[in-house]
Write a structure and sequence with these properties.
- The complex is a heterodimer.
- Chain A is mostly helical.
- Helix content of chain A is about 70%, strand content about 0%.
- Chain A has helices at about 10-30, 40-50, 50-80, 90-95, 105-115, 125-150, 150-160, 165-175, 180-195, 200-205, 210-220, 225-245.
- The chains are: A mainly alpha, B mainly alpha.
Amino acid sequence: MGKRSNWALPYFIFLVLFVALPLLLIVLYALRDGSGGFTLSNITRFFSDGDALNTFAVSIEVAIENTLICLLLGYPAAYILANKDLNKSAVTAILFILPMWVNALMRTLATAELFNVFGFTLGKGTLIFGMVYDYLPFMIYPIYNVLLKMDKSYGEAAADLGATPSEVFRKITLPLSKPGIFSGILMVFMPTVSTFAISEFLTNNKIKLFGTIIQENINSSMWNYGAALSFIMLVIIGLTTILLGGEDREVEGGTL
Amino acid sequence: MKKFFAQAYLWILLILLYAPIVFIAVYSFTEAKAFGSWTGFSGKLYANLLTGNITGGHGLVQAIENTLIIALVSAAVSMILGTVSAIGIFHLRGRKKKTIQFLNNIPMINPDVITGVSLFLLFVFLGFSQGYMTVILAHITFCTPYVVLSVLPRLGQLNPNIYEAALDLGATPSQALWKVLVPQLRPGMLTGFILAFTMSLDDFAVTFFTRGTIGLETLSTFIYADARRGGLTPELRPLMTLIFIIILVVLGLINTRQGKTNQQNHINL
């Protein structure tokens, strides 16, 4: 069986070529000027670029709000779905991930149109609501998965020993579901910050998020500045991942 | 009573989540060009879609074809690459295993835009001309990790003795592979394939950055371009409705089949 481990070799080479090298290239392009010389000006330019800084701040704010709302709405849903006394059918759980099979852009456009029909002005409010629509399943699913696999006997033992239901929840269920919460946050926060297209559709081009700035620069051939902005994103991704407990955890909930 | 509120909560969330989809489905039965205006019941958009007689010309049909080809090819390659690698990773130990699992996680954590930009820079750097090939390579990059993660847990549940027994009974390693290992891994491979296929179908950002300038459109980029021009091709409404119905039926079938073969109450997709 020893030679079996060699089967991972082609994929390892593939990963180096298509995952590691491209990320390295982001750093490389971010640190080069138009003629190929080393420079830090792309990075420093961001910190004096009012438009980009402003978009960045708005993106972080929208992402925090979106993540919080998804967590507040999603945790109870995941809890109910995983609790056999409250919900017996597996079909309801599947219903929550089904909308993801309809093209995200199309769903977003329909959401924006629905807001129009009901007379809401497209802006920050509709942006947050639309984002919650798009990302809620990504929050529910990992939490649901962790709660489902959780050993119920801890909670029962605590209850037997005199803990009230709210104590059981606060001291047993909630701490044990942390890995799911962290995966959920990771899967909602980062994609929200870097969203492009969706934010324009939901706000009638009034609000751009950070992903749009990156896209605009890359598409107008400002590769070095675009790479620098992507590099800043990468740093934030790295920080968030470390903050939320290392790279071993985020896939635990099973990603969809 | 508690159960009633719990169920009510779930259904309110579901109604909100499905509202946009229902909205699309309802407005697929009217001829109005603009999404959101109703000009009487009509099945004309469905007729247009099925006969290929589409308002905006041939673009949509071409985009559907491209989307399906790209999704099928990337999902198939990802399934094979991911399964072979999962077997390899399962037998690796220590630092090597950690490294490859770390690399495998990156495409899943990275937002689409970063994956897209990084691959765009790679193709520029290597001097690849961007088009079909680069889009498929990019999709394989972000799809394969999901296959690896679907197959790996299956390997842990396998009884290695069955494979050894096959060898002892005179099977060649390749016979043992195809007749013993692959059939046992098939459910994980299928889950991986379905995940990869849907990730590819739904992708917008990565395709957007890696398709180059040859005018390659998938459904997502087509919808994006359409919306930017102001006004969606009306036939997209019946198309999305049909896709959703097909998915409902397929999932319903898989679900009832799984329900029969094992008594598992909660199904992980």
